[in-house]
Amino acid sequence: MEDPELFAFGPNWRESVTVESEFKTDIATSRSGREQRAAVRNEPRMEVTFTVGVRRDRLRAFQRLLARFQSHVVMMGDPTRKVDLEIAVTAPTQTITVVDEPRWLVVGAKLLLEYEDRREILTVQSINFQQITFTTPATQTWPAGTAIRPTLLGMLSASISAKNITDELAEQKITLSVLPGYEPVFLTDTGFMVHDGREVFPFIENWGEEVSTKFDWARDTVDFGYGRTDYFAPTSFGTMTRQSSYIGVTADQAQRMSDFFNRMKGQRGEFYWPTGISDLVPMASLVEGTNTMRIAGRETYDSFHGDTVYRCIAIRLFDGRMIYRTVTGMTLSGGNITIIQFDKPWLFGMTTREISCVSWMVAARFASDQFTGEWVTSEVMQTQMSIRSLEDLTVENPTVIYDGAADWVFENWGEAGINIMDRLDWIVNTLYPAIFFIPEAWVHRGEADVDRFDVIVNVRWPQVFD
Question: Looking at CB atoms within 10 Å, which of 272, 301, 333, 341 has the fewest?
Answer without folding.
Answer: 333
